[in-house]
Amino acid sequence: MSSHHAQAQGTSRAAIGMIAVAAAAAFLATFNETFLNVALTPIMTDLGVDVSTVQWLATGCLLVAAVFVPVSNVLYHRFPTRPLFVGAVAFLVVGSVVGALAPSFGVLLAGRLLQAIGTGLLTPIGMNITLAVAPREKLGLAMGIMAAMTTLGPSMAIVVSGALLSIAPWTTLMWVFGALSLIVLLAGAVLLRNVAELGRPVLDVLSFLLVAVGLVGLLYGISTAFSGSAPVAALAAVVGVLALAAFVVRQKRIEHPLLNLRPFRSTPFVLGVSMTMLGLLFVFAMNVVIPIFLQSVKGQTPLGASLILAPGILMTVVLGPVAGRLFDRHGGRVMIPAGFTIMAVFALLVGAAAGHESVLLFAALYVPAVLATSLVIGPSQTFALSSLDRESSPHGVTVVSTSFQIAGCLGTSLAVGVYNAMTTLGVENGSDLLAASTLGFRGAAVLVALTSVIGVILALAATRAARAARAARAADAEETARSGRARTVVDLMKSDVYALSTEQNVLEALQMFTARGISGAPVLHPDGSLAGFLSDGDVMRYLSAKHPSSTNIYSFAIGESDDLEDALADLVSLPVMRLATPEVVTVDANASIADAVAVLSDKHLKKVPVLRGENGPVIGIVSRSAVNRLAISSYLASREGQVQRADGETSTAERVPQLV
């Protein structure tokens, strides 16, 4: 076996290990959101609280998790992946211990909210890890695994909790979850490596407060609409909407937004996120009303109700990766609307079976309903994220992860609200409790069936959007092939600029070059104006002059690094402007692509900063490699229109969504 092949195998094994850790994190995060739900009754008895108070163990967890999801994007690019992951899981471990030892409801809620912080951080971190290490041709499989774990988490929580509560007190749930979290923490500490492009993103506190008020207000309003004061719920929802509107406006105005809104420019992304939310809403809704119905109406124990859900849950885990492979090969044009259709049909059949005496019939009809979510959640999520470019993907992950929490809160609140409202209506109309509860369950089943029908409509719209995206891409390439001068460098440049500040030293610059995989970066004044440009070649020339025995940077790779290590240590006290080129060749934002090509060619440069105006701020970088990609795509477009796969679908290399 060649060393290159062995290295490739090692890289593949490392990627598999990291995806496994990310999948375990997704399982933990969603497991945490529902595993305490079946223990609410004994908690009320032990701690002396009523149902309106104890429900905050579920609602509060979802709300706090939703608030911390946007923060994860800042932390992901600020801290190395391994310590960040370990820190996020540590919140789960500490929260579990606090909850298990809680002497009062307030302490238990505090522990639960600590767990929620870890939940809000873990889901996007795990998805970002998967996007970073999964081969592009196997992205559907990897995201299918993530979706399976996301679906398995809240579903399996009911089964495991029901089994444990039949033999142990509710505090055991906290200890068991803490132990599982500790295992994942140790696995992450061993298997993870840094996969993020690190920088110094700033957490905008006002944006954090606005999104916190917005999400808490909106989700609180929805969750209390059926069971609390209608005016209070409406006021909370209005305040939430206004805060979210202010959040959106602020993100467009500040230099370092908490959440980059660029993904929302993509119609396929918006449709993909919406379909993902509808699939998750189905899972959360059915997983809360089915146990309630089976225990209150069918006389099942918590364990019995959990076991009725188990077959479909376990089969979903198997089908998730299979659905991912099918999506990689054939897209989701048929799969996603078929999944929503099956969900709608069997949700109605489960509702009809609710009045039947046979619990087995009820359980059998639920299996295809929950299995169909595998055809929806993972493929829709992959479709959404595959519509984004590399720079937008982390922001898209944040949006998708936030949508998980919102879908969970919506599914739980709406299903329980409809169930209770219809049950109350039945009692008021003279029905006995059994018939009224059956009516309430059927109302919840109709609700999820209707949301699934909406999913079918969105899937058809996504098909049209994907086709339009391909057509627009082909037309854009044709236009570029006909006239390169019709476009400016703004259309070609990379807008997320990796820049140095005049206050940094040269060693920090080298660390950034290594972390981001770049060979140079502009140096900016505090006001954002261009001060110079530093490349790794500038550093090597300095080392060659000052430390002639240490000119070979590759000596680190073969173990002969003593002399070079001493030389690099000198760079700590060397400001970047001592080595940077102060007279930088630049391109104006309004320059044509042909002008940029001429500058790169005539000056023999790899990349050129793009300025807005003569002395304006740096707004991007145009590189030789970007020009090369444009030239190749223009040639292919003019010769064939667009690259086609053997089955007639667009190549995955084009980054066009694969719904059709």
Question: Could you please describe the fold and organization of this structure?
Answer:
It is a single chain. With 660 residues, the chain is mostly helical. The protein folds into four domains: 193 residues, MFS general substrate transporter like domains (Growth Hormone, Chain: A, Up-down Bundle), CATH 1.20.1250.20; 54 residues; 221 residues, MFS general substrate transporter like domains (Growth Hormone, Chain: A, Up-down Bundle); 133 residues, CBS-domain (Roll). Helices cover 69% and strands 4% of the residues. It has 23 helices and six strands. Helix 1 packs antiparallel against helix 6, helix 5 packs antiparallel against helix 6 and helix 5 packs antiparallel against helix 8. The N terminus and C terminus are likely disordered.
Q: Strands, helices and their partners?
A:
Elements: H1 3-34, H2 40-47, H3 51-54, H4 56-78, H5 81-100, H6 105-133, H7 139-165, H8 171-191, H9 205-224, H10 230-253, H11 267-296, H12 302-330, H13 335-353, H14 359-372, H15 377-386, H16 393-428, H17 433-482, E1 500-501, H18 506-516, E2 520-524, E3 530-535, H19 536-546, H20 562-569, H21 576-579, E4 587-588, H22 593-603, E5 607-611, E6 618-623, H23 624-640
Parallel strand pairs: 1-2, 4-5
Antiparallel strand pairs: 2-3, 5-6
